[in-house]
């Protein structure tokens, strides 16, 4: 299909497709002349993925490029796949952040986090520090309760990782991280509305 048909099929404007091609988010089509190329269903699928990552996932072009690189060049270890997904998707955190509060939480939980996964520890530390800075500190017991709820979700997610291929596992972990987090946030807010209505009543 030509780029105009690719645009109609995918629902992505031609100008946007050309931008994705320039940015390396979409692989080149098969050249049929100096100015024309043919595209196929792989381009449609990649466009839908890119739109999901940038749209629903809220990723930048640079972060989307990293995610796509992981999908195309996956690590060998299934555990390393998750670490790679988290490293490219999580917010950047100063490596010098004080992690003592986060370490205290992890020690109580008995969670073992090593190596590359330390980025998530720094993210937790930064989140706790932000709460303190806003004069809205959470008691550690509350943080532990949140952690237990997240652990239950994480166990279900990790148990669902496909084992038939590395590519399937990467796709599951990356998209599960990017696209499920907005779902979790929406469900949390709806749960708050429901809890408030039950506790305080509605007009």
UniProtKB/TrEMBL annotation:
Annotated transmembrane regions: none
Any matching Pfam family: MerR_1
Entry's Gene Ontology molecular function annotations: DNA binding; DNA-binding transcription factor activity
SUPFAM superfamilies per the UniProt record, alphabetical: Putative DNA-binding domain
Domain HTH merR-type as annotated: residue spans: 1-70
Matches recorded under PROSITE patterns: HTH_MERR_2
PANTHER family tied to this protein: HTH-TYPE TRANSCRIPTIONAL REGULATOR ADHR (PTHR30204:SF98), REDOX-CYCLING DRUG-SENSING TRANSCRIPTIONAL ACTIVATOR SOXR (PTHR30204)
Protein known as: MerR family transcriptional regulator
């Amino acid at each position: 299909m030509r780029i105009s048909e690719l645009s109609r099929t995918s629902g992505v404007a031609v100008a946007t497709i050309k931008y994705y091609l320039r940015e390396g988010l979409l692989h080149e089509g098969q050249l049929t002349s100096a100015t024309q190329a043919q595209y196929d269903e792989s381009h449609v699928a990649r466009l839908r993925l890119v739109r999901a990552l940038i749209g629903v996932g809220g990723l930048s072009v640079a972060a989307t490029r990293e995610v796509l690189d992981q999908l195309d060049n996956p690590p060998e270890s299934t555990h390393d796949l998750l670490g790679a997904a988290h490293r490219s998707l999580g917010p950047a955190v100063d490596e010098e952040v004080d992690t003592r509060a986060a370490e205290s939480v992890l020690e109580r939980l008995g969670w073992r986090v090593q190596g590359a996964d330390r980025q998530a520890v720094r993210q937790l530390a930064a989140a706790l520090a932000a709460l303190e800075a806003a004069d809205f500190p959470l008691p550690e017991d509350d943080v532990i309760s949140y952690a237990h709820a997240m652990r239950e979700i994480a166990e279900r997610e990790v148990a669902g990782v496909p084992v038939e291929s590395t590519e399937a596992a990467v796709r599951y972990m990356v998209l599960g991280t990017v696209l499920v987090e907005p779902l979790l946030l929406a469900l949390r807010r709806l749960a708050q509305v429901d809890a408030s209505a039950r506790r305080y009543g509605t007009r």
